[in-house]
Amino acid sequence: MVSPGPGVLLRATLRTRRREFVRLTGWSLVEAVPALLSGWLVARAVDDGFLAGRSAAGFGWLGLLACAVLVGAWGTRQVTLQLAGVVEPFRDDLVTLATTGTLHRSARVGQGVDTAGVARLTEQVEIARESYGAVVMFVQSFTVTTVSVLLGLAALDPALLLFVAPPLMAGLVLFLLALRAMAARQRAVVLADEAIAEQVSTVAGGLRDVAACGAEEAVRRRVGARVDEAAGAARALARLTALRTAALGVGGWLPIVLILAGAPWMVRSGVTAGAILGALTYVSQSLQPALRGFVQGLGGSGLWLLVTLGRILETAGPWAPGASEVPRAARVTGTSAVTSARVAAPSRAVEGQAAGRADGTPSATGPGKPEAAAPPRAPTPPDPPRATHPRDGRVDLRDVTFGYAPSAEPVVQGLDLSLVSGTHLAVVGPSGAGKSTLAAIVAGVLEPQAGQVRLGGVPVRSLDTGRLTRSRVLIPQEAYVFVGTLRENLAYLHPTATQPALDAAVHAIGAAPLVARLGGYDAPVDPALLSAGERQLIALVRALLPPAPLVLLDEATCHLDPGAEAVAERAFASRPSTLIVCAHRISSALRADLVLVMDGPRCTLGTHDRLRADCALYRDLIGHWDQVGAEIRR
């Protein structure tokens, strides 16, 4: 699948915003009133006024010209206002394309971060926006003005067209022939700018290593070569501007020379002096400025528009051969060497099974500690051709690997995890161990580079946004509360919730005092006036309402006191849904069926009692939690 070209995007813009362009064209016709009438009114003022000895009539005709100029100025104002309705939506489309392309190119497996995407998102999108507005203005103005001038010349005397139309057409042909070569030079300039941005970003990220290795001179030469390439591309483009100047001279200045040179012949043929002066007015005051704007605008802004659009569209297309759709979340790259842990937990039963232990004792291995007599890993079943709704809350991770960057230490690798529907799992570990990352992977927010995540027997990556939203709820540490009524905030994930269901969820979470303090469900909510704990209570009620088979609480109770946290977790545990809690207190681990301890290259699974006996890190965490609790009590 190939990304559409700039022409396709521009034509699509014309189709989707046809009404805005029609309004813009209408006001452009008003703006062109002086161009249509100026030469004719000057001719009347000369022939029927001043040369006829009627100065008052001559000034009257010129007064009408002044009125026409005022009408054109009013039209210009309206054109400028209408232009925003065309340009700003176009800019929004480009921001979406540039952002999507940069994220997916950066997250493509086996490729580095797309640092040049910063130039596309900032410099190139703004260039395309400004260029698009200029091109629309210049092209529309030139078209309307040229038609008006030719109609005016024909009204004065058809013979005048012989002196204006041929050189105008010759100038346009010369300019359009040079445009392709100028576009190639302009593209070279854009690519050179991107190369500089990428090189500088790479150097800035490794300045300490450059200094430590004494590689300043080598880096200086490399960056200097990029700068020289950009300067050479700019000089090559500048040389082609001579053709643009020549086209302007042929189309804009040659008609004036021909009219002056042919004036004696035209006078002998019956063309009046006023008509000749009117023709010069048409060319010098209307046609020539419009042609100058067209040539300079299309030769400058138009080239930038085509080239920058081409670059943005190139990066917004598919990122892998055969890809048929844009992934739901950014694909994040990287490989890692983390231990694997296979867990099979029955509903609400404290049972675990880890790869490598025949007695079912949970275990995990890391680099240098292979499992003894580990059973062979079952092959990953292929994705179904069409996504179905998850049957229940069963969670299966098979050989899942994830890292945030190719050069970064991986967060998860080779992780096998199986939770039957209804299991309550607590995920613990030091800060930065990957707890939030694991929650995001299970929820389908992050997509692993290798392995497969299934929810209710259905691959998470095959679920569209609607099915995924209905199948799981993820509540992060920073609860999201928006300006609106309390009811709107609580029922955000389940708008059809009944009043009894809303009351039950509020009481189950322990948020009834908060609802009463705020003034009931229809009271307005200002997030800035709520504490972090109150915002978490609202988010917890919101998560409890929908009947999702999987709930993930990523430290979603960290701002609640232990008693309120226990109430909230028991509310979720009483449901048949699978519950995964990224815990920050020992009490959360005590309430769980199983505990998964994450520690970089090691993952260990088991019950609280077994981990306390067998896992040194878990004992350390318990000691840390006990110490923090004692300090808080003091």
UniProtKB/TrEMBL annotation:
Keywords: ATP-binding, Membrane, Nucleotide-binding, Transmembrane, Transmembrane helix. It is found in: Cell membrane. It holds the Pfam family ABC_tran. It is a multi-pass membrane protein. Residues 376-387 have a biased composition (Pro residues). It comes from Streptomyces shaanxiensis. Signal peptide: none annotated. Residues 28-289 form the ABC transmembrane type-1 domain. Residues 341-393 are annotated as: Disordered. Residues 364-375 have a biased composition (Low complexity). InterPro entries: AAA+_ATPase, ABC1_TM_dom, ABC1_TM_sf, ABC_transporter-like_ATP-bd, ABC_transporter-like_CS, P-loop_NTPase, Type_1_exporter. Residues 395-624 form the ABC transporter domain. The chain crosses the membrane at residues 21-43, 55-74, 132-153, 159-179, 245-267. It comes from the Bacteria. This is ABC transporter ATP-binding protein. One of its GO terms (molecular function) is ATP binding. SUPFAM superfamilies: ABC transporter transmembrane region, P-loop containing nucleoside triphosphate hydrolases.
